[in-house]
Prior knowledge:
The protein is of the alpha/beta class. Helices cover 38% and strands 17% of the residues. The radius of gyration is 19 Å and the shape is globular. The relative contact order is 0.17.
Amino acid sequence: MNIGLEIYSPVHQITNKLFDEQGLSVFIKRDDLIHPLISGNKWRKLKYILKRASAENKKHLVTFGGAYSNHLLATAAAAAKFGFKSTGIVRGEQITNDTLFLCNLHGMKLIFVDRESYRHKEELFDKYFGIDADAFFVDEGGASFEGAKGCAELVDELTESYDHIFCACGTGTTAAGIINGLQTHQLTTQFNAIPVFKNGEFMRDEINQYLLRPTNYNLYTDYHFGGYAKINDKLTGFIKTFVTDTGILIEPVYTGKMLYAIYDLAAKSHFKSGSKILAIHTGGLIGLLGMKDKFQL
């Protein structure tokens, strides 16, 4: 099976009076344009997972996520595209929403489990698919060494050097992959991670487990807005202004928080004048549909 997909992820400059005043050049890598549904870091993380599944002659992808999980949808779409069956084990009570509708439309079977059972993913896999020789375990969010390997390829695509790279963090896989890519290319770029969870210092361990070798990077833990998928009027107002000013659609769970951090740090004169900064758009825009009631438009 040929697991390949054309990568289209251009880099666009973001112009803003704040950046001009601070002497900054800010860019965004548009991984959201890679694919409508297998978007952003989701494709990068799934690429080598699917290759491994194919190499092991597995035909059934079994993965995990919440009811609004971009990863569930990306896995469903990738499974349909590359000829796999797919099952999503969903955390929480059975509901219907736009994300799960699209998962179903791509052929994904959904199994809803209570939150305590969901904590034990390996046990759930064994319970439902332990005797299924075709089944292949895909961890929540694509967290894996294969996922980090795919994300490292982002650095291969860069045609310019940057002083800083910023990325939102959910599992740490994307961050670790980019750091590995920077190390492979022997770049001195400072990597900056924005955890989307409250008390996100634990994300350092999540990142470190996938690193090729130890390295220094920044972890900014004050931009979670209350926790995972938590937002407030300050964040939604920023997103509305950003989208209106740039024409680049972002969502509030990951990329919105990461970009807010860059603007906030710039306003606090955190960066040296003349710095070039690259933000990574990690896609997942379908998630906006589940949060539209939070925006006062």
